[in-house]
Structure formats: C-alpha cells, structure tokens
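User: Hello, can you help with two protein structures?

Assistant: Certainly.
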Amino acid sequence: MSEILDRLAETLEARKQADPQGSYVARLYAKGLDAILKKLAEEAAETIMAAKDGVREKVVHETADLWFHTLVLLAQQGIHPNEVLNELARREGVSGIVEKASREEGA
C-alpha cells in the first residue's frame, strides 16, 4: 500500500510547480490552505453521507476522495504520508485510551 502513497506523494509534490490552469491539485495549492481545508471538509461530509446511505461502492469512492484530499493537505504542509504511517505503526498494539491520554499529558 505504501507504494501507491509514495507515487501519489511524488505526484502531489510535482503539482506544486504545475500550472493551475492544467492541474486540479495545482489550482487547490494556488487557492491556499483554506480552499484545501474546505475541500477536505466537503469530502469528509460526503463520506459520512455515503456511509449513512449504506452503499458500499459510494463509501469506497467517497473515502478515496477523502484520502486523496488528505494527501493534498499533507503535501501542502510538507508532510510525507510515511510520517502518518509511522505514527500509525507506533500506535499499533496500544490501547486508544492509553494513547490519547499520553498525548494529553504531553500537551
């Protein structure tokens, strides 16, 4: 799975230099963080609605959109998807309650 994430990260990084007229992602980058966050919120809402509808294909499609736009946000922030995967690996086998408490203690 990380191979597709690596390829997408590479593509998203390249889009930072692309012409916004010819690239949807370059257009999002040009509009700035607020536009990216708005799109991410829209995709999250569509994913929720798809899940409520209970149509498997819609859930898959909308989740792909949500993940893609999350990757756009990560790239805009200079974060490689592997950083998120490493964080997930760090949390593996740790109770969610314990993990959350450890973050709250450090805040």
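That covers the first. Now for the second protein you mentioned:
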Amino acid sequence: MSLADEKYLLLTTLRKSGKTVPTPVWITPLNDGTMGFYTSSGSGKAKRLAHTSRVTVQPCNSRGKVTEGTEPTDGTATTVTGSDLDEIRTKITDKYGFATKITKLLGTIGGIVKRNRIPYGDLGVVISVPGSPEATTQD
C-alpha cells in the first residue's frame, strides 16, 4: 500500500528552533506521484512550512499514534493554491466524504467559541517523498 493510500499520515514539520511538531493529517494521492492535503493558511503547519519544506510522514491513526511496523519517511512539502488546491479538495472529499463537512463545521464552531477564526482549507500542501509512487508501507 502506498503512503498516499493510508487514511492518516503523521506529518512532522519543524519549528525555526528545530523542534519537531507531529500532526495527523488526511492524505490523498495526486496524479503526479505526489500526495496532498489541505489546511488553513493560519495553521501552525502552514507557518512552519513557510520557513522549511522538510517533513517526515508515517502512517498513523486519527490521534497520531504511528502504525506498528512502519518507519518515518523523509519528504518535501510545498504549499499550493488555485487549481492545485481544487484538485486536492476534490480528492480529499471523494476519499473522506461527509467527514469533511463535519470537520469544517467543528472548525467553524471552535473558531467562534475561541474568537480566533481562521480560514478553513484555503491552502493545499503537496508532499513528495523519494521513490514516489513506490513509497509503500508494510501490510
């Protein structure tokens, strides 16, 4: 199974200090052997990716617990908008269905409650890993 076929990947980004920040994300394969997800331009992931494109990815569950028998894979991530973002949104919605609507609603409610509304899913992230699309996980 390829990394992009996993339900969740643990995306680890780097702060300017070098400290790692792991975050579980939904992921979808893209046509060119890369994989992608969307996030808010105001998210920590987006801020960290603005200063370094280095990431690691590893299969995990929704809470970020890595899948036993897997290892982190180094990669690079770039942010995208426009038609590239539209492609990612469509593929994520096709893969995860109604859950995408629920997360958007919960994000909106959370932003209202915390009085910190940030845009939802206005930035795409494309991840390339060595050997894609052959980068696979152990079954």
